Amino acid sequence: MKQGVYIIKKNAPLTTDVYELVLAGDTSACKAPGQFIDVKLPERFLRRPISVCDWDGESITVLYKLLGGGTELLSALPVGTALDVLTGLGNGYDLSVSGDRPLLVGGGVGIPPLYRLAKELISRGRRPAVLLGFNRKEDMFYVNRFEGLGAKVTVTTADGSFGIPGFVTDGLSAVGTYTYAYACGPTAMLRALDGAVTTSAQYSFEERMGCGFGACVGCTCRTKNGYKRVCKDGPVFRREEVLW
Amino acid sequence: MNTKVTLCGVELDNPIIPASGTFGYGREFAELYDINCLGTFSFKGTTREPRYGNPTPRIAETASGMLNAVGLQNPGVEAVIGAELPYLKTVFHKPVMANVSGFSVEEYTETCALLDKEEQVGWLEVNISCPNVHGGGLSFGADPALAAEVTAAVKAVTKKPVIMKLTPNVTDIVSVAKACADAGADGLSINTLMGMRIGLKTKKPILANTTGGLSGPAVFPVALRMVWQVYEAVDIPIVGMGGVTTPEDVIEMMLAGATAVGVGAANLTDPFASKKLVEGLPAAMGKFGISDLNDIIGGAH
């Protein structure tokens, strides 16, 4: 983990309520897809944890959804604003177990960490299948970006306005065989998915956090291996240890 | 310039003490900086048995502060002695403050007796104030007679200084402070204020526990007032805490009567907050013409 000052390079909407935020600064603490950053906002006491979508040597990209006062405030910050950010938080996904054809499943604002994951898997010569779930066609984002990486993308929409009608579980039959599953999304989605996947898997969870680095134990969950902090021991947990 | 103070007979290099529940057992922070710069720290509230604590959400934000209802999650005193303290010894070379909670007088004394044998424990901080656990801490700290009973019982099983951590959620904290002092307490500290938030989308309390302890700058003036009142009523040292964020807050707490100063929520919003306070204290002392912190303890009275 590192603490640093980051400058907003881009802060623009991708849909009506999902924004892309690019922060310029030290990216050396970013180690694995699935990690998150914790952003201090002006006039807000607690930091906002946001999963990392991508990074390079100069900047970190995150996507966030307008969910309340804090994210609305963030969306109004102009390019050039300096923010105090903790980077390199959480464990991230373990890519070493993916096999040749991993399946990546994302729901809504759970999709962003899968972008970097797909990128790294492809750079390792893997052939990931990507399954993305949205509520409506208008809510779709990053589908072309995943396709740009060379991944095969399947989309489901809850209202049937694009792709396969229904939830990500309804899209599973369309993705073919897979060697491993990685997922991020609402707990209800992960739970439903867990009832349908046929391989080992890693799921990224979210929880209301205090500190984001393991000190306050505000985000504890029970697992088969005891109590774990979503922020420090997670947010990625193996399917085999999750207690639903 | 002197920042050394003496807390219940034990000298501290400076008065900065990360508060219990915001610093774990030191591990997370020792990965970030050399925690030997601190006066000491108070480790996570420890009970006789392991505890999961409350369901989540355990955290909610407030204006200038936060609510927590962690519910004393901890691995139990045996695991603390067996796993946490041996690790701590490798990264922290000063006496540590052992924070203890319990649900009966016997549990307090059994846990304290075990920690009394640990060389690195410099003080026992006995939490009779945690507002989160049903049927737990609140009742002891809310009643001067029960608070005195716990104090005397713990004093009987340890030679280490005993700091009683009071609850501010009472009508008259001075009467509880006096009862603890009369029962033999060596020092006093004060816990968080009980509060709550309601989510507008769910129209239900945000915290699964409904209520939680309010900390952060929002509580600073209340905490300062209580330190002031308690200082006037007792002759034992006070660890002042509640919303301390800046070196100036530290000085203000000491002027109100604190011998040392706890830092809580600030550690959670800035992992380097306590280190920055230690580093910033001499400059703030210089700014206000203070050469020795001992000169200002209770100086505003």
Note the topology:
The complex is a heterodimer of chains A (244) and B (301).
Chain A: E1 2-13, E2 18-24, E3 36-40, E4 48-55, E5 59-65, H1 69-75, E6 82-89, E7 102-107, H2 112-123, E8 129-134, H3 143-149, E9 152-157, E10 164-165, H4 168-171, E11 180-184, H5 187-194, E12 201-204, E13 220-223, E14 226-229, E15 236-238
Parallel strand pairs in A: 7-8, 7-11, 8-9, 9-10, 11-12
Antiparallel strand pairs in A: 1-2, 1-6, 2-5, 3-4, 3-6, 4-5, 12-15, 13-14
Chain B: E1 5-7, E2 10-12, E3 16-18, H1 27-30, E4 59-62, E5 65-68, H2 77-91, E6 96-101, H3 105-116, E7 121-127, H4 137-142, H5 144-155, E8 162-166, H6 173-182, E9 187-190, E10 193-195, E11 198-199, E12 204-205, E13 212-215, H7 220-233, E14 238-240, H8 247-256, E15 260-263, H9 266-269, H10 273-287
Parallel strand pairs in B: 3-15, 6-7, 7-8, 8-9, 9-14, 14-15
Antiparallel strand pairs in B: 1-2, 4-5, 5-13, 10-13, 11-12
Please provide the count of β strands of chain A: 15
Number of helices of chain B: 10
Number of helices of chain A: 5
Q: What is the structural class of chain A?
A: alpha/beta
- Cα-to-Cα separation, first versus last residue of chain A: 29 Å
Low-confidence stretches of chain A: none
Give the chain pair forming the largest contact, with residue counts.
A-B, 27 and 36 residues
Assembly state of the chains shown: heterodimer
Order of strands in the sheet with the most strands of chain A?
A: 10-9-8-7-11-12-15
Considering the protein shown, what is the CATH homologous superfamily of the largest domain in chain A? Answer: Nucleotide-binding domain of ferredoxin-NADP reductase (FNR) module
Q: Could you report the average pLDDT of chain A, rounded to the nearest whole number? A: 97
| Order of neighbouring strands in the sheet with most strands of chain B | 3-15-14-9-8-7-6
Low-confidence stretches of chain B: none
- Relative strand content of chain B: 15-25%
CATH superfamily assignment of chain B? Aldolase class I
Given the helix and strand composition of chain B, which structural class is it?
A: alpha/beta
The H-and-E topology of chain B, N to C, reads as: EEEHEEHEHEHHEHEEEEEHEHEHH
